[in-house]
Amino acid sequence: MGRSRRLLKSLASEERALSRSRKIDRDAPDAPRADLDPADWDAFAEDAHRGLDLMIDYLRGVRQRKVWQPAPEAVRARFRAALPQKGKPLAGLIDEFEQFMLPYANGNLHPLFMGWVHGAGTPVGMVADMLAAGLNANCGGRDHIAIEVEKEIALWLAEAFGFSPESSGVFVTGTSMANLVAAVVARTKTLGEPVRRGGLRAAERQLVAYASQEAHGSIERALEIAGIGSAFLRRIRVDAARRMDAQALGAAIAKDRAEGLLPFFVVGSAGTVNTGAIDALDALADLSADEGLWFHVDGAFGALCVLSPELKPLVKGIERADSIALDFHKWLHVPYDAGFFLCRHPQVHRETFMSTAAYLARAPRGLAAADIWPCDLGPDLSRGFRALKTWFTFQAYGAERLGAVIARTCRVARHLEGLIAASTVFELCSRARLNIVCFGVKGDSSGELNREIVMDLHESGLAAPSTTRLDGRPVIRAAIVNHRTAEADMEVFVAAAEASAARLRAGRRAP
After folding, report:
1. Do 150 and 499 touch, CB atoms closer than 8 A?
2. 161-179 b/e with 16+ CB inside 10 Å = b?
3. CB 455: neighbour CB atoms within 10 A?
4. Contact at 8 Å (CB) between 147 and 374?
5. Between 487-505 and 386-422, two packed helices, what is the crossing angle to 10 degrees?
6. Domain 138-384 has CATH 2.40.170.20
7. Residue 326, Cβ neighbours under 10 Å: how many?
8. Of the four listed, 62, 224, 335, 431, which is most buried by Cβ atoms within 10 Å?
9. CA–CA distance from 114 to each of 110, 185, 315, 403, 415 (Å)?
10. From CA 299, how far away is CA 268, in angstroms rounded?
11. 507: pLDDT confidence band, cut at 50, 70 and 90?
């Protein structure tokens, strides 16, 4: 009883101190508040609802605005001010956001944004992200409901990809980070858990990894960060369809073994960033199994073809991977960021990251209960509730509808391909294997006019494709990712691109 009385006395003392601080707030309005909650919750709610309505209106009217416009220098200068020492009312901050930020976003919500591989977000995802921010859950670990939601996403992915329900998975910022996690897990599988303490100096032979010439640059960076070195990533030639040549891969592995090196990691691509090419995953799985190598699939966007009965055959063999990296924020349009790493081998996954630090000790019950926490499966301890917006997306739309939207973007890409094939100005540079069409101006061997057209379209605000290089030539690249994009948008895009070509040839830029 004595302990209870002391606790009550302490709480009463804290309450008196809090009351004094509130009195100070009233008596000295210029003094900093003692907490960060609103002084008037009703006024805050009114401002917050106005902010939500602002974004709903913004999404509703996305087609009525330019795809992109640069911020004027006067607007940019506003963001070079000194550190604010005094607070401002929320209503005024929403006004500033509306006037000086909202008009100058990167434009990936617009149906004619076709650059890189950007998801377009959804109204449902926006609300889910707001709810997650309000909950402010730290999803590094401990026993709370957000961890269960993340585990459910891993179960759903295991089902979608044909993995065992015991497979492990973890949210990360994106596929670049997931590829790094894959490289580190594969390193542990090859060299054993002691590599975490002893480092690569203890390895008897140099590790070597393999990916195609078209694989994403994050593979190279992953090997650099993992201490293996990008010099030991073998870039394997591709065939006419820009898929990794399995025969060339086998020859490279044999050569490295003969030279005393240690092959350990094969990366197959399910949707390359340049053209959307998909490696022959079954053949790579066979070769990796024969050679005893970790087979990882970089499926940043293309892995989600498994949700579409029409497209799923294109990624046959992905179910045999040791690990898969993907982004929910691309073809699934979960708000940024939401990447994921899925692993067939939960034990080696845990051995790679699990820590014995005292502050991460587990308890038989209470908030520190549960055996496996997300921090045991990746490099992050403090993590946001990315799973909620992903959970809302699957629950609100269902896997069937999401798969149908993915398949539709591929049909829109084929429609664009047909328009380019019929154009008197442009020629196809790469077939639309998934949702990416690469094309260029006929007779523009240097590709410089292609680059100018892309910049001209950006500045006009009419469309936002990007560029890439195919066979050394800059080409125009249109990635149809946006769930809002329709066939009619492609006709607008091609007409705008042809007009841009004519304008530039006449020596004029976008008005």
Report:
1. no
2. bebeeebbbbbbbbbbbbb
3. 14
4. yes
5. 60
6. no
7. 29
8. 335
9. 9, 34, 23, 19, 14
10. 8
11. confident
For the record, the structure tokens of 114 come out as 């076709």
- 154 Cβ contact list (under 8 Å, min separation 6): 167, 168, 169, 170, 342
What span, in angstroms and rounded, lies between the C-alpha atoms of 124 and 102? 19
User: Residue 469 — φ and ψ, nearest 5°?
Assistant: -120, 125
Evaluate if pTM is beyond 0.85: yes
Q: What percent of the chain lies above the pLDDT cut of 70? A: 94
Dist CA 339 CA 300 (whole Å):
8
More confident residue, 7 or 499: 499
Tokens of 334: 């979960």
| DSSP code string of 40-66 | -HHHHHHHHHHHHHHHHHHHHTGGGS-
* β-pairing verdict for 233-236 and 436-441: unpaired
Position 474: which residue type? P
Residue 371 contacts by C-beta under 8 Å, 6 or more apart in sequence?
362
Q: Which residue has the tokens 């003969």?
A: 258
Whether residue 21 has pLDDT greater than 80: no
Contact 240, 277 (CB under 8 A): no
Helix axes 246-258, 281-291, angle to 10 degrees: 20
pLDDT tens-place string over residues 280-294: 999 999 999 999 999
Backbone angles phi, psi at 150, to 5 degrees: -65, -40
pLDDT at 1 over 50: no
Give me the half-sphere count of Cα atoms (radius 13 Å) on the Cβ side of residue 376.
20
Produce one character per residue of 389-422: b if its CB has 16 or more CB atoms within 10 Å, e if not.
bbbbbbeebebeebbebbbbbbebbbbbbebbee
Q: Residue written as tokens 């070079």?
A: 80
